[in-house]
Design a protein that fits this description.
Blueprint: H1 5-11, H2 15-23, E1 32-36, E2 41-46, E3 54-59, E4 64-67, H3 77-88, E5 94-96, H4 101-109, H5 129-133, H6 144-182, H7 184-189, H8 191-204, H9 208-215, H10 217-222, H11 229-249, H12 254-260, H13 266-270, E6 277-291, E7 296-305, E8 313-321, E9 336-343, E10 352-360, H14 379-387, E11 394-398, E12 402-406, E13 410-414, E14 423-425, E15 439-446, E16 451-458, E17 461-464
Parallel strand pairs: 1-5
Antiparallel strand pairs: 1-2, 2-3, 3-4, 6-7, 6-9, 7-8, 9-10, 11-15, 12-13, 13-14, 15-16, 16-17
Helix pairs in contact: 2-3, 6-11, 8-9, 11-12
Length: 466
């Protein structure tokens, strides 16, 4: 398979990545470039913003690649730059007879297109009694010196990550100050370019989660009316400042680390003794699938606890590459099931994992939840903001009301049974068939400015609004 510039352009996720890759082809950024003498395999080390260079490998036969950088683009600019050098100046690579261990490890773990998954070796049949009674060999025990070195290396990596994230938040503070100095009107108009620039810098400094949040800010602003965008920008920049201050005060807090740098793995959550576990009946309220600018697809599924006396929710959140295509959903809106959920550690536990599904539950109406004594349907949002003011989306249960349409302002949710009740603007459009329909209860996500409807209970049954 020929490797040329057209192939590289086809691999590039966007023109910006291709331009960044062209800049990285300078030899000053590539201290080592090597290729196997016979196999169509090239690799190299590219110096990034950290102390250790990124290790990059590319298989020219099937365009498989591997890079140790934290970028969420697939492929990243380092892969494109390595392929660019291989296509334009192949003589830059030093031919070697043996590949390094880290390349061999990647080759051993990857599966090429069309290659069946590796099968586990079959157990020998007819095992003798002597062999069965023979004691199994114990796994080698790690000596104290090796364990100490491993723990020291882990502490060193944690310290390096903390230092890098601290530097990232310093740059974020300076960037926010620059936006305020230049004016928010200009920021809204140029938000795409400005946010992409600071997000790339935050990725280099290991603040990947925070970078993704800033990279999605322009899309959220453009979804609003033009007169609402400056206020929304002020709110989001203020939340970023609060998040940076909270991380500096408690850098080891699991929730703050999740919002700024990296999240825990599924196994870490399931085995965490401090994680909140809830076994109850759950209903799938709705889902939200978004394609992000970094090439990932965010799949959020909202659940309602049917056994709680007060409204309690759970959020199942998954990410996968957009190139993988749409995944088959494990849940459908309206599904009811009994399950044990494990929540991510947080001051306001919301994101969760399904640890064990215990069976289906018959459909029916929602229970009558105990509401705030003052009758404020947004009391839960106020408490949510008091605990984590750097967050925005809060699920709520709204009391009886209806959806009304204001021809001048757009679609609104309105408390029809109380003339003094509040009216909340609804994000997006609402089906005309729902206008004026009496809703006994509505589940939605409120972000302080817009209401994203999930589901409602009415006299004609459950309504899917997501």
């Amino acid at each position: 398979m020929q490797l040329d510039l057209k192939t590289i352009e086809a691999l590039a996720p966007d023109q910006a990545s291709l331009g960044a890759a062209a800049k990285l082809t300078k030899r000053s950024n590539w201290p080592r470039l090597e290729a196997h003498e016979q196999l169509p395999l090239i690799w190299g080390e590219c110096q990034g913003s950290g102390s250790n260079p990124y290790r990059v490998a590319f298989d020219t036969s099937d365009h498989g690649y591997k890079c140790t950088c934290p970028s969420r683009k697939f492929p990243c600019k380092h892969i494109l730059a390595l392929a660019w050098i291989g296509a334009t100046t192949p003589d830059s690579f030093a031919r070697v007879d043996q590949t390094p261990d880290w390349v061999n490890d990647w080759l051993g773990r990857r599966r090429k297109p069309g290659q069946p998954p590796a099968q586990a070796p079959a157990r020998a049949e007819g095992k003798s009694i002597d062999e069965a009674s023979r004691p199994q060999e114990a796994a080698p025990v790690e000596d104290a010196a090796a364990a100490e070195r491993r723990e020291a290396a882990q502490r060193k990596r944690a310290e390096d990550t903390r230092s890098a994230v601290s530097a990232a938040l310093d740059e974020l503070d300076q960037w926010i100050a620059d936006q305020l100095r230049l004016g928010l009107a200009g920021f809204v108009d140029a938000s795409s370019e400005r946010c992409r620039r600071i997000a790339a810098r935050l990725v280099d400094l290991k603040a990947t989660a925070l970078a993704g949040r800033i990279d999605e800010l322009p899309a959220r602003l453009m979804a609003l009316r033009s007169e609402e965008r400056p206020d929304a920008a002020i709110r989001e920049l203020g939340k970023l400042v609060l998040l940076a201050k909270a991380w500096r005060a408690a850098p080891d807090d699991a929730e703050l680390k999740r919002l700024v740098s990296t999240s825990e793995t599924r196994d870490q959550i399931l085995t965490n003794p401090d994680a909140v576990q809830v076994e109850s009946d759950w209903e799938v309220l709705g889902e939200k699938i978004e394609t992000r600018r970094d090439g990932l697809v965010s799949h959020a599924t909202w659940l309602l606890d049917l056994g709680s006396p007060i409204p309690r929710f759970a959020l199942l959140l998954d990410f996968f590459p957009a190139s993988a295509g749409r995944r088959s959903a494990a849940f459908a809106p309206g599904d009811r099931f009994k399950a044990r959920l494990v929540f991510y550690p947080s001051g306001n536990p919301l994101r969760a994992l399904v640890a064990e599904r215990l069976g289906d539950v018959a459909p029916g109406a929602w229970p009558s939840f105990a509401m705030d004594a003052a009758g404020d349907p947004l009391a839960a949002y106020t408490a949510f903001q008091d605990g984590a003011p750097w967050l925005a989306d809060c699920p709520v249960i709204l009391p009886a009301g209806a959806i009304a349409l204001d021809e001048r302002e757009g679609a609104w949710w309105q408390a029809a049974n109380d003339p003094h009740g509040i009216a909340l603007p609804v994000a997006g459009s609402v089906s005309q068939t729902l206008l004026g329909l009496d809703l006994t209860a509505t589940a939605a996500v409120w972000n302080g400015a817009r209401l994203e409807l999930l589901a409602s209970q009415s006299n004609i049954g459950r309504l899917d609004l997501s």
